[in-house]
Amino acid sequence: MTLAIFDLDNTLLAGDSDHAWGEFLVEEGIVDAQAYRKANDRFYQDYLNGELDILNYLGFVLQPLSIHSMDELLEWRATFMDKKVRPMLLKKADALLNSHRERGHTLMIITATNRFVTEPIADALGIDHLIATEPEMVDGRYTGGIAGTPSFQGGKVARLNDWLAATGESLDGAWFYSDSHNDLPLLEKVDNPVAVDPDPKLEEFARNQGWDVMTLRD
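The structure assignment produced for this chain is given below.
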């Protein structure tokens, strides 16, 4: 089995679903608009700069999940998918996914964005295997905490290694597509690393290494 692994935000999507979820919460009046937007933007800039404190960020982003019922959250998420995510879908991303399907590859998303936000996106893209940061749940409610290792930077490698050990699969011939220098730990582990609409740090590194660089934007 050959794995074709994809980052999600700004790779398969023309935008960042995690940041967009925060914007959605602001626009719907679910959170304090001024304070939440300021923090959301600051964390996103930290991510772009390669300076994100992932545990601090997850404490922020998972907190709203812990204070609302699952029924409310699922209703909001469905609206979020229609308003925010579907406009980010890319025709060229669909074509890329289909090219790997036609070669018999197994498709997987690995993303630092939490599973609550990303699971319906993976479903919309027709990708069965999703490794995402796992929000902790107790008795059917989110606690605001994290279960296990966040799939961020080196955590993506650790989580993928766990999956490989559990399934008996390998990275032989694997592909990984990403836009972000935060994903260098995993890009450097696969046989076929591809920089997709990369940030400046990743683009420079990829070109120096002779990696493929591509765009999925129209």
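Interim note for the steering committee: The chain has two domains: 3-14+89-214, 17-87. The chain has a mean pLDDT of 96.
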